[in-house]
User: Which sequence fits this backbone?
């Protein structure tokens, strides 16, 4: 969601372009993106589901034979007069002589595209998983090829020349969301159809469409949230699950205290590098000091976009938004630390250059239907919301991490209720992969989300972040062992942490800003 200046749009924009910005920015270097060629993959033909068509699927400079398909489902199953919508996917046929259950990839977000993911850095994993069954790159309802609803551009514009009080911001966000709700309904869309429950029931419709007795679910972040909802909806029709960076059904809004605990783990990783420890002896103190500085005297930044200069007041809340966008993975956290170091020295050029790529001061609030409705519907319970509000008063990032939640909690009448948010039961074999430097989903919360599943195996990936699938070849090895039925519980994969210390040249620039 790109919403002008406000934090949700800032976070989404930064996350979408993060690898590009890390590679382009003068404060970082060494980004590598590669795709492993799909060699020696003679697919075993299976019965083709109705309506599929053969395609050549391209990922980078590699192409592989696949099938494109779709299936029809009600937009809102609770409405007898609901219109029907199409959900699209790509199927990569299994290379196994006797394929197991189809493996359905569930993208994160919400709003991520499974098909787009298969074209990216995780393509080798999609190919490797074909050894166990057909692999389905699913574009969930409202995403990718399955998205038909137009983006809503509201008339609400957040001020960019002053700090906006929390209550005023929440009221403006609600006004924008309500305007967009009316916009989509007038265009023939039912926002009540875009909930995680409806999304989970689509997985059973997909299973029937594929002619399979069971499916294996493979999801990350929101994809794991969807898988947990499916565990309740499908039960024994799920063969097994592979989940990474788990987001529980009651964890759409994260606890500020857990984010603070993440910064403690990040400090431990920094302390293991003497040069970095000398520069960041107390990361939390640095962050707090910068926030206090911006609260007392926020500077005005000039952002140049397409030859047009616009101004933005760099408030504490904006800086918290930058941090929220960049703590998912340690590689981007490295850049974030350097931005805090620069702002602490009153050197604003690096942050100004980064913000200019993603922030459009004065732009109206805009929303996409699927991610907005999914988050609002999954919601947050009364007790957890009260805890979040208490913790936010003293936490480093306040309540900004999940913006525009919890500000829109209970909006549009979409909340699925506490029954939905209860941890699901299940006895399907489940592999959970957790990164120790994940700044979005946290180990303690991930374990709590899985507490009622009786056959969970947990593997820790030390020094990995939120997007951990490609952190090490050992991750693929663990996934393959799990799919073969081998026991992997308690395994610990260790990957190298990034270099946290800035270069000498970067230190010199920061020092210049102090004089």
Assistant:
């Amino acid at each position: 969601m790109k919403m002008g200046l406000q934090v949700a749009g800032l976070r989404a924009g930064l996350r979408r372009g993060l690898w590009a910005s890390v590679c382009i920015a003068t404060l970082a270097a060494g980004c590598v993106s590669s795709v492993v060629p799909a060699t020696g993959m003679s697919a075993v033909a299976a019965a083709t589901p109705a309506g599929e068509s053969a395609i050549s699927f391209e990922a980078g400079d590699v192409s592989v034979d696949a099938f494109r398909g779709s299936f029809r489902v009600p937009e809102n199953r609770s409405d007898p007069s609901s219109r029907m919508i199409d959900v699209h996917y790509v199927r990569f046929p299994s290379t196994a002589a006797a394929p197991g259950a189809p493996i359905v990839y569930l993208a994160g977000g919400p709003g991520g595209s499974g098909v787009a993911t298969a074209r990216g850095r995780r393509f080798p994993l999609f190919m490797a998983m074909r050894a166990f069954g057909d692999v389905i790159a699913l574009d969930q309802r409202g995403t990718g090829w399955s998205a038909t609803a137009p983006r809503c551009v509201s008339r609400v514009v957040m001020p960019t020349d002053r700090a906006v009080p929390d209550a005023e911001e929440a009221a403006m966000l609600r006004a924008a969301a309500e305007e967009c709700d009316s916009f989509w309904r007038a265009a023939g869309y039912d926002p009540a159809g875009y909930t995680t429950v409806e999304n989970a029931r689509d997985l059973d419709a997909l299973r029937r469409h594929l002619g399979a007795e069971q499916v294996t679910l493979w999801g990350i972040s929101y994809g794991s949230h969807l898988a947990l909802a499916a565990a309740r909806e499908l039960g024994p029709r799920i063969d097994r699950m592979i989940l990474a960076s788990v987001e529980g059904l009651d964890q759409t809004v994260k606890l500020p205290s857990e984010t603070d605990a993440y910064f403690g783990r990040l400090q431990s990783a920094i302390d293991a590098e003497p040069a970095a420890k000398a520069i960041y002896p107390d990361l939390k103190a640095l962050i707090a000091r910068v926030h206090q500085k911006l609260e007392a005297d926020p500077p005005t930044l000039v952002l140049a976009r397409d030859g047009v200069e616009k101004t933005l007041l760099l408030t504490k809340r904006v800086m918290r938004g930058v941090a929220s966008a960049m703590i998912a993975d340690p590689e981007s956290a490295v850049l974030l630390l350097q931005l805090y170091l620069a702002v602490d020295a009153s050197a604003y050029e690096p942050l100004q250059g980064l913000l200019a790529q993603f922030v459009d001061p004065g732009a109206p609030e805009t929303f996409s239907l699927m991610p907005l409705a999914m988050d609002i519907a999954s919601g947050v319970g009364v007790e957890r919301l009260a805890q979040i509000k208490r913790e936010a008063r003293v936490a480093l990032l306040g309540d900004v991490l999940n913006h525009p939640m919890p500000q829109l909690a209970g909006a549009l009448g979409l909340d699925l209720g506490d029954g939905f948010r209860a941890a699901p039961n299940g006895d399907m074999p489940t592999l959970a992969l957790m990164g120790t430097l994940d700044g979005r989903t946290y180990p303690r919360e991930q374990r709590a989300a899985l507490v009622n599943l009786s056959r969970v195996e947990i593997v820790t990936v030390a020094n990995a972040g939120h997007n951990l699938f490609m952190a090490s070849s050992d991750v693929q090895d663990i996934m393959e062992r799990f799919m073969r039925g081998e026991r992997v519980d308690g395994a610990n994969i260790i990957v190298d942490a990034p270099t946290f210390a800035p270069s000498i040249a970067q230190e010199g620039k920061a020092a210049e800003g102090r004089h």
About this structure: Confidence is low (pLDDT under 50) at residues 1-8, 15-46. The chain has 19 helices and 14 strands. Residues 166-186 form the longest helix (21 residues). Residues 158 and 164 are 8 Å apart (CA to CA).
